[in-house]
Specification:
The protein contains 8 helices and 13 strands. The protein has about 300 residues and is of the alpha+beta class.
Length: about 300
């Protein structure tokens, strides 16, 4: 057994890591790795610092990927993915993260599953401090059969971006729904940024669900992924215009996205959140990827 370390090569390693995450997925995400749609969503996100992708580290055994350490959107983050049986690489992967993924101001946030006691002990011994408010929970939804009826207030409609790919409306509900203010940049570049965010590698526009108000404006949106091999849905992102909250619109959008995944064969769905909104829908937290911080120094 010869373990080798190399840096990420864009774009050819994107699909290799996607396959790695798919191949080692276990029902209920018991492997503890990122779900593959999270990797896909990362690459379509406008916040991604793609100029640093080459800093991602890949460990291979006989030229097959067995571990990966990467950031999500920017330097200063480190996430760790393992093939079962290769967790013993934790120490050198943490070394790599400190050397290659530290932010320019010297901070590093490493994310360690709270189910991994050995890794938790390692980061504590290295002087990391837990930041609970930055933890990343993962919650699971067991898809019921039959699926419950989805109810909307009178005059509101459920659509998808397959039927109505109006990127101006998508941009507006995303901007307002994430509390960025009342006046989004309504330019072609802004609309194209949203299109790229939703039209990722394996995205299906019919799973990108919107709720339209009586006047036709999009007032809630749920981006849903369906991973065919693992037969699960993945919720990302969800936003509701502040003027239309507490009307059940976000609930309807999420449930409709899950229902559509179920029609394709999904048996479960996941979301990276422990918000009461999701718990009330029936999601249960499986574990938390805990955030540990250390000030390391400048690159």
């Amino acid at each position: 057994m010869t373990i080798t370390l190399r840096h990420y090569k864009d774009p050819q390693d994107y699909q290799k890591i996607s396959k790695f995450l798919i191949d080692h997925y276990q029902p209920g995400n018991k492997d503890g790795n990122w779900l593959e749609p999270a990797w896909e969503y990362m690459h379509g996100h406008p916040y991604l610092q793609s100029e640093h992708l080459h800093r991602i580290g890949i460990w291979e055994d006989d030229r097959k990927i067995v571990a990966v350490v990467h950031y999500e959107w920017r330097l200063g983050e480190a996430f760790f993915q393992f093939k079962p049986g290769y967790q013993y690489l934790r120490d050198q992967m943490l070394d790599f993260a400190e050397n290659k993924l530290t932010a320019p101001d010297g901070h590093l946030h490493v994310f360690v599953n709270n189910t991994d006691s050995e890794f938790t002990s390692l980061v504590k011994s290295r002087g990391y401090t837990h930041l609970p408010h930055e933890d990343r929970p993962l919650a699971r939804f067991d898809i019921p059969v039959p699926f419950p009826e989805i109810i909307l207030p009178e005059g509101f409609r459920i659509l998808s971006l397959k039927e109505k790919p109006d990127w101006a409306k998508v941009h507006k509900v995303m901007w307002r729904g994430f509390n960025h203010g009342d006046n989004p940049d309504m330019s072609f570049d802004a609309f194209e940024m949203r299109r790229k965010m939703f039209d990722t590698t394996t995205a299906r526009r019919d799973l990108k669900v919107v709720v339209a108000a009586p006047d036709g404006e999009f007032v809630s949106i749920c981006g849903m992924f369906y991973q065919t091999d693992g037969r699960y849905g993945y919720v990302e992102p969800v936003a509701t215009d502040p003027e239309y909250r507490r009307m059940g619109l976000g609930k309807a959008a999420v449930l409709e996205g899950i229902r559509r995944c179920a029609e394709s064969g999904a048996q479960e769905a996941f979301v990276g959140s422990n918000q009461l909104f999701y718990l009330a829908l029936g999601f249960d937290v499986q574990y938390a990827s805990q955030c540990w911080q250390k000030q390391i120094g400048h690159d």
